[in-house]
Write a structure and sequence with these properties.
The structure is a single chain. With about 140 residues, this protein is mainly alpha-helical. The protein has four helices and four strands. Helix 2 (about 45-65) packs across helix 3 (about 65-75). Strands 1-2 form a two-stranded antiparallel sheet. The chain has a two-stranded antiparallel sheet with strand order 3-4. It folds into two domains: about 1-40; about 40-135, no CATH class.
Length: about 140
């Protein structure tokens, strides 16, 4: 079975895929590590500005791509005119709990989910009480 060229081609393909993934992970890890090394030396005000920019970016992404947050962020007054973030209304965003996640599961999926590489993680102690998260 090892001498079969078809099996060898499949093994070679799998090995290349794994190696490619390992290289990408290593490159991403290296980039994140360099960012963290640079960020540790930022002043307090620079760190706060960076946090503000990153929070605004993720809120805008959620508004533009996640139906649940499109409604919630607008009604909380956090997003104005689809591109302005008002962080002073951040505390008005309703908390997300297990029941809301279960009830609004489809609306919590990103519109661009099909174009992303994602996987399911299931959490729970019993088969009747499983919590599924798409990463």
């Amino acid at each position: 079975m090892v001498n079969n060229p078809t099996n060898f081609a499949n093994l070679e393909s799998v090995a290349r895929s794994i190696l490619s993934l390992m290289i990408r992970v290593k490159e991403q890890s290296y980039r994140y590590c360099r960012k963290l090394e640079n960020w540790q030396w930022l002043s307090r005000s620079d760190v706060q500005q960076l946090q503000k920019e990153r929070l605004e970016k993720i809120l805008l992404h959620a508004y533009h791509y996640v139906p649940y947050y499109r409604k919630g962020l607008k009604s909380a007054g956090v997003i104005k005119n689809s591109d302005q973030v008002k962080l002073y209304h951040f505390e008005n965003i309703p908390l997300l709990d297990k029941n809301k996640i279960h009830y609004h599961f489809d609306d919590l999926k990103s519109d661009d989910l099909a174009s992303r590489k994602w996987y399911e993680n299931a959490y729970g102690r019993s088969p009747c009480n499983v919590f599924i998260v798409l990463n």
